[in-house]
Amino acid sequence: MKKIVTLIPSATEIVAFLGMKDAIVGRSHECDYPKDLEDIIKLTSPKINVEGSSGEIHKQINEILENSLSVYKVDIKELKKLEPDVVITQAHCEVCAVSLSEVEEIVTNHLNEKTRIISLQPNTLKEIFDDIYRVSSGLNLEKVNTENLVKPLKNKVKNIENLAAKQNRCTLACIEWIDPLMAAGNWIPEMVNISGGEDIFGKKGKDSHWIKFDEIKIKDPDKIIFLPCGYNINKTTDEVKRLFDKEAKWKNLKAYKNNQIFIVDGNQFFNRPGPRIIESLEIFAEIIQPDIFNFNHKFEGWINFFKH
Prior knowledge:
The chain is of the alpha/beta class and about 300 residues long. About 40% of the residues lie in helices and about 15% in strands. The chain contains twelve helices and 14 strands. Helix 4 links the parallel strand 6 and strand 7 (about 115-120).
C-alpha cells in the first residue's frame, strides 16, 4: 500500500472518502476529520497565534507574507522518516496551508525522487469533484469505483438545485472574514445559487475579495451568513457579537432587523473543498429555503445568530 502524506484537511477527507485512510502516514495539524486521526503524525504547525481575533490573525499573516515567509512550519525531519510515496497539498491559498512551492522544494531536497506531489486547486464545485478524481488517479484507484462514490454526491447537488429552482430567491451576503470584511468567492456563490439564493457579492469561480460595510449597506441583503475560514460556530459567534456591539450600524440592516443573520461552521464545512462540500450545500439550503429543506444540520453545522 502506498504511504500518503496529506497537508490540507480536504486532502485527508478525499483520501478517506476513497477508502485509503489507512495509507495516510502523516497529516497537517488541521486535519481532524475523519475523527480517528490522532495516531497519525502531525507534520505542520502555524507560525501565528490562531487564538487571536480575526483582526489580529490578519495582521500576523500580513507581516509574515510581506517577508515572503510561509505561514506554516513543516517538520522536515519527521517527513523524511515517513518516506511517503505521495504528498497531497494545495495551490489555492498560501494562508490555508503550506504553499505548493514550499512543498515542491521540500520534496526535491529531502525526499525520494520518486515521491509524487498531487496539488489541489479547486475554484468551483466541478473542480472539487475533479480533484477527487485527480487524487484517485494519482493513487492508481479504479475509476469506476471512484465514479460510484462520486455519483451520489452529484445527484444530491442536482436534487437540491431542482427543488430550489421552484422557489422565490432571496439575496445573501456571505462573509468569509470579519476583520477586515471579506466576501466569499470560489464555490460559495455557486452553492448559494444552487440552494435558491442570490449571492450579491461573490462571483462563481472567482477569488474571495475584501469589501466595505457601506457596500453591504447599499445592497441590504435579505440574509447574511458568516463563514470565516478556520473558525467554528462558537468562535464566529463571539466575533460577530463583538462586531455588532462595536459597530451599531449593522443593526440598521434588513437582515439584522428580520433576525436573518446566520453563523456556520466554516472550518468543518465550507472552507474544505472535499466530499463534505455536499453537507455544506445542504446547510445553505436549510438557511436559504427553510420551508422545503431540512437535513438536520442545525446547531451542528449552523445556527441563527438570534435564536441559538
